[in-house]
């Protein structure tokens, strides 16, 4: 009996020591969560056959890279037709301007002829006064000057009339060209939208269509995410909020299981201003807490952290 009592005492003492050791053991984390990344679903901005679509899941693409093209043949044909119409209108405007210049040149020529004839009249008037030439020659010059003056006045009237008409015509042509330019800009935008581009630099997560399929505006084509700049969404209790602030540096651990972890330098990027019930998959410093606050901690990923992976944070 004595030996049995001694054995029981040793077992109880050992249990007490274990409990004390466990009670003194410091937790390795202050909060837990899962890794997330900024995800973007890219949709079609044009309607037509997907002529090319050169991406695959897991592929890294640069921001602005063209990864596919939607058939834009009809749009290009329309753009070429509009360009032809603009050239035709430009030729019409050039022709009207040319006619106006011809009339002005004609007026200048008549004025020059009148000036020459007036000089001849002065010379012949002196000769007639001296009796060197008959007066008829002076009369002929005067008649020629009157004819030229009538021609000059008629040309001026024609220029005034044409200028008003040509101004209206030129204004109309200008309006048509402006309309064509507006249409071309719209078509240029539609042609640009026919190119499927990556809006951010990142990795393709999912691909929803294949080359050769017909797509409509708004149809999702693929999903991508920026996996270089990730964040851990963790949850903290109200008592932990006093120890957190935006921009604070913390330690983040990616948990690979079997006690294998990788550490990252993290920065508190966001703290929720609204509490929520503790998610079932999350452990907090106070496991009895019903309400917690979400925080986002940004990290620079080295390729090992994955979306949805379990993580821990130490403040």
Name the strands of the widest sheet in spatial order: 1-8-11-10-9-12
- Annotation, overall tally of beta strands: 12
Helix and strand sequence: HEEEEHHEEEEEEEE
Mean pLDDT: 81
What key attributes describe this structure?
3 helices; 315 residues; disordered N terminus; six-stranded antiparallel beta barrel; 44% helix; four-stranded antiparallel β-sheet; 30% strand; alpha+beta; single chain
Structural commentary:
The protein is of the alpha+beta class. Helices cover 44% and strands 30% of the residues. The protein has helices at residues 2-24, 73-130, 135-193; strands at 31-43, 48-53, 60-61, 66-70, 195-197, 202-207, 214-215, 220-236, 249-255, 261-277, 291-300, 310-314. It has a 6-stranded antiparallel barrel with strand order 1-8-11-10-9-12. Strand 9 (249-255) and strand 10 (261-277) form a beta hairpin. It is rod-shaped, with a radius of gyration of 45 Å.
Concise overview:
With 315 residues, this protein is α+β, with helices and mostly antiparallel strands. The chain has helices at residues 2-24, 73-130, 135-193; strands at 31-43, 48-53, 60-61, 66-70, 195-197, 202-207, 214-215, 220-236, 249-255, 261-277, 291-300, 310-314.
Question: Which SSEs are present, and which pair or pack?
Answer:
Blueprint: H1 2-24, E1 31-43, E2 48-53, E3 60-61, E4 66-70, H2 73-130, H3 135-193, E5 195-197, E6 202-207, E7 214-215, E8 220-236, E9 249-255, E10 261-277, E11 291-300, E12 310-314
Antiparallel strand pairs: 1-8, 1-12, 2-4, 2-7, 3-6, 4-5, 6-8, 8-11, 9-10, 9-12, 10-11
Helix pairs in contact: 2-3
């Amino acid at each position: 009996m004595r030996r049995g009592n001694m054995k029981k005492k040793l077992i109880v003492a050992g249990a007490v020591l274990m409990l004390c050791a466990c009670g003194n053991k410091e937790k390795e984390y202050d909060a837990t969560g899962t890794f997330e990344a900024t995800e973007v679903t890219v949709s079609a901005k044009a309607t037509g056959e997907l002529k090319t679509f050169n991406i695959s899941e897991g592929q890294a693409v640069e921001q602005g890279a063209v990864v596919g093209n939607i058939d834009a043949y009809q749009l290009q044909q329309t753009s070429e037709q509009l360009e032809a119409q603009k050239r035709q209108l430009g030729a019409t405007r050039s022709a009207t301007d040319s006619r106006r210049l011809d009339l002005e040149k004609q007026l200048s020529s008549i004025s020059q002829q009148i000036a020459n004839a007036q000089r001849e009249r002065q010379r012949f008037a002196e000769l007639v006064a001296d009796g060197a030439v008959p007066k008829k020659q002076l009369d002929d010059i005067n008649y020629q000057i009157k004819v030229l003056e009538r021609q000059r006045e008629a040309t001026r009237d024609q220029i005034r009339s044409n200028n008003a008409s040509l101004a209206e015509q030129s204004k109309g042509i200008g309006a048509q060209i402006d309309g064509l330019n507006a249409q071309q800009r719209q078509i240029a935008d539609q042609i640009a939208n026919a190119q499927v581009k990556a809006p951010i630099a990142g990795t393709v997560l999912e691909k929803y269509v294949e080359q050769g399929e017909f797509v409509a505006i708004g149809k999702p084509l693929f999903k991508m995410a920026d996996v270089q700049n990730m964040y851990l969404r963790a949850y903290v209790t109200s008592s932990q909020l006093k120890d957190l602030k935006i921009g604070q540096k913390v330690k983040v651990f990616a948990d690979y299981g079997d006690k294998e972890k990788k550490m990252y330098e993290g920065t508190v990027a966001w703290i929720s201003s609204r509490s929520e019930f503790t998610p079932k998959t999350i452990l907090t410093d106070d496991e009895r807490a019903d309400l917690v606050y979400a925080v986002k901690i940004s990290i620079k990923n080295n390729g090992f952290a994955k979306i949805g992976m379990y993580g821990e944070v130490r403040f």
